[in-house]
Every structure is written in C-alpha cells, then in structure tokens.
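This section describes the prediction task in plain terms. A model, or a person checking by hand, is given the sequence of a single protein chain and must write out its three-dimensional structure as a string of tokens. No templates, partner chains or ligands are provided. The sample shown here is typical of the held-out split.
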Amino acid sequence: MSTLLEKHIVELLQERNEKAISLLYDNYAHTLLGVANKVVRNEELAQDVLQESFVKIWKKADSYDPSKAKLFTWLFRITRNTAIDKLRSVHTKSDKEIQMDVSDVYNVGVESIRPEFLDVQENLDKIEDKYQIVLEALFFQGMTQQEASEELDIPLGTIKSRLKIGLRELRKIYGPAMITLILNFL
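The expected answer:
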C-alpha cells in the first residue's frame, strides 16, 4: 500500500469521515480477516471479529498516532486483540454451561481452583508498574515475549528479566505452588 493512500486514510479517520472505513475495508479487510482466522480458527468467528474490529477502529480513530506505529500495525493489533478476546469469551461461555452429569462438589482440589477467582489482575497492582506492564502484555493480552518487546519498545532481554521478577513478586503474594497453578490456567 502506498504511503500516500495510508496518509489519506489516516486523515479521513481523524476527520471522522466514513469514507475512511470503506477505504480501510477495501485495502485491509482480507488481511485482517486472515489475522482473525489464524487466532480463532473458525471462519464464522473470524467474520465477527473483523466486524467488531472495524467498530473498534472507528471508535478509537482519534487514538491512532502515526509516530508510534504504522497504520497496518495499529489495525493488526486491534484485530488480533479482538480475536483473542473473542476466543476467551467463547471459552468462558462454554465453561459456564451447566453440566448436570458432571459435579465436582465433593472433589474440591487443585483442579477446581480458578484463577479468575484469585484476583490475579487486581494483585498485579501490588507490584511495580514495569513488571505489571510486562505480565499484562504476556498473560492477559496474549502476546509473545517478542511481540511484547516490539509493542512496549523494550529490549527482549529486559522483557524476560521483568517477567521473571514479576512472577517472583506474585509468588510472594500467592505462594510458589499457587503461582504455578495460575500460570497453567492463563
């Protein structure tokens, strides 16, 4: 895509001109659908993700900063994060379905501990911001260490160090066995 067209689309987005969405769709929809499909691995869900992504793109148009990322990178991240959210939503929905023939009322053990009930995200507030940001990117936004390095503009080695220290800080809150359990569920 030419940088001239990209600049034109950005200008239209910032002006809240609806023509921007048409141009975005014409030039990026196929690729973004591929991104969504790669994450959710379901054509129908990928279509939903694409639609939700375009709504988010329109609503967040004023937050795009060309000095921080290229337009495609910004679109890619929104679509990928929307796909990850959709996938988690589908899994959570199926986890909540009532299964009458399966009960673990009398089998409360390690397998029945659910991280969403342990306030993991709330307890992240108890550790330093630099570790918190890395843990959120890796575990709650689904990024790889390389992606977090690029997204946060932090060297990969620093990402790895902050991950290690951040997990050590969480171990102080939950205990070593519990943090291993939580990481297995995330």
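For orientation: The chain has two domains: 3-95, 110-185.
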